[in-house]
Each structure stands twice: as structure tokens, then as C-alpha cells.
Design goal:
Layout: E1 4-9, E2 12-16, E3 21-27, E4 30-34, H1 42-51, E5 59-63, H2 69-72, H3 75-82, E6 86-88, H4 93-96, H5 106-111, H6 118-127, E7 140-141, E8 155-158, E9 167-171, E10 176-180, H7 206-217, E11 223-226, E12 232-233, H8 236-247
Parallel strand pairs: 4-5, 5-6, 6-7, 10-11
Antiparallel strand pairs: 1-2, 2-3, 3-4, 8-9, 9-10, 11-12
């Protein structure tokens, strides 16, 4: 199948899976993969690598913004099958191993079931592995502070709130910010268009997620690649401020 993919900067591609995005950054034959979609997105993930002239064997590392199933879905598959290292913030490593699970609960979903889009989102999530058990057996914390020695030279930035160890990835050379779920531009359960926080039920600590917007405001980037929604062009500082306005 042909994937829904857009080149957003030099050697940088945003791929839309089933309700969740991932990002591919290439450098020659090598690639950095940021997030992996739901478990049910695996073929789309593999196809997207082929479409940019890469392959699973050429992925230097998988970087995970946070360990929810819609971002972690094929990380263990790549690690186990191809030996690909899987890196997260140190606070998110035990989450990826499933020593605990910080995720929206059934009770929270039921209490929000009256909201437009929630029930269709639930049905879809169940179909593509949203509740599957997909821990990463040997996740690793980022090996260094600052830029990682990977295609794109991504710089991890800790942005807790959505989960304890959520991290975004700044690509200073191209002015790109890969924001995961710390700042999105849309979601199936939201009627807001443009930069926003996810609905409250999805955050482990909403107040902390709101506070992390200040961290994003300090990053020099004008292309936002969110975990949900389309690419957003414009200063990330203004995007974070807009999300804060919607949330207050």
C-alpha cells in the first residue's frame, strides 16, 4: 500500500499512520525513525521506509517520544528482528518495559464517551492494537546529553506531563521539532484545529503537560511535526502559546 507521507524538510518525512504519525530522517542509506505507530501500522511503517529509499536494516535507531501503544507499536519488532536500538528518556524506559502503564483508562473513556469522536476513536484503537501488550524488552536511555549521533542530529528535550518521560526531538539544522503528544495539531477526539494539547483524559499529569509548553516555546523551530495531526508551519513558540490559550 502507498503510505500517506510528506517530505517536510531536507531528508525529513512525516508519515501519517492510522491516527498516529511517525517521522523518518535520512542521511545517505541510514535513517532515524521517530515513533512507530500502532502495532497494526507495521506494514505501513515498513512501506514508508521503502518509499524514502531506506529499509529496516538501515535504521540506525528508533527514538520514542513516549511509550503509548500508538507510538511504541513496532519498536520491539524492529529491535528483535533487526537489532535496532530503541532509545527513550530515562524516565520512560521502565514505561516501555511495561513495569507500569500510564495510559487513558477504560473508566476515563466511558466518562468521555459522549464527546464527538471518542467512540469511533476507541473502535479504531482496538482494531489496530491499542490495548495489545507490546513492551520493549531492552529499551535504552538516550546515550548522551545533547545532539545524538544519528541522521538529523536530533536533540532530545524532556517534556513531561503526557507521560513522565515524554520527550520531543529538536532538529536545529532544519528548524524542525518532532513533538510527539506534547503538542499536536489535531486529534480524532478534538474539534480544535491547529496547535493544541490533547484532550485532558490522555495526559498522565495535565498541569505538567501544560507547563512543558514553556519548554517548547524556547526551541528555535518553525516546522512542527506532531504525533497527531498535520504538519504545522510557523514559529513553535507561537504554536505553544496558542495551545496554552486553548487549554486555559
Amino acid at each position: 500500500m502507498r503510505t500517506d507521507m510528506r517530505q517536510v524538510a531536507d531528508n525529513t518525512y512525516l508519515v501519517h499512520g492510522s491516527n498516529t504519525n511517525w517521522v523518518i530522517v535520512t542521511e545517505g542509506d541510514a535513517a532515524t525513525l521517530v515513533d512507530t505507530g500502532y502495532p497494526g501500522d507495521r506494514q505501513r511503517l515498513l512501506d514508508s521506509l521503502a518509499e524514502v529509499g531506506s529499509s529496516p536494516e538501515a535504521v540506525a535507531a528508533v527514538l520514542i517520544t513516549h511509550a503509548h501503544n500508538d507510538h511504541l507499536g513496532s519498536a520491539e519488532y524492529l529491535r528483535r528482528t533487526y537489532g535496532t536500538p530503541v532509545h527513550l528518556h530515562e524516565a520512560e524506559v521502565p514505561h516501555a518495559r511495561r513495569e507500569f502503564l500510564h495510559q487513558v483508562t477504560v473508566g476515563q473513556v466511558l466518562r468521555n464517551g459522549w464527546r464527538p469522536g471518542v467512540l469511533p476513536w476507541v473502535v479504531h484503537a482496538l482494531r489496530v492494537g491499542g490495548t495489545a501488550h507490546v513492551p520493549v524488552t531492552a529499551p535504552e536511555a538516550f546515550p548522551v546529553t545533547g545532539a545524538l549521533d544519528l541522521p538529523g542530529r536530533p536533540v532530545p528535550v524532556h517534556t513531561p506531563g503526557h507521560t513522565k518521560g515524554h520527550a520531543v526531538f529538536h532538529l536545529p539544522d532544519t528548524g524542525v521539532l518532532i513533538s510527539g503528544d506534547a503538542l499536536v495539531s489535531g486529534h480524532r477526539t478534538s474539534r480544535i484545529r491547529g496547535p493544541q494539547l490533547l484532550p485532558d483524559m490522555f495526559h498522565h499529569e495535565r498541569a505538567q503537560a501544560l507547563a512543558s509548553l514553556a519548554t517548547l516555546e524556547r526551541l528555535d523551530a518553525d516546522v512542527l511535526l506532531p504525533g497527531h495531526g498535520p504538519v504545522h508551519h510557523g514559529p513553535v513558540k507561537l504554536a505553544a502559546q496558542r495551545a496554552r490559550e486553548h487549554a486555559l
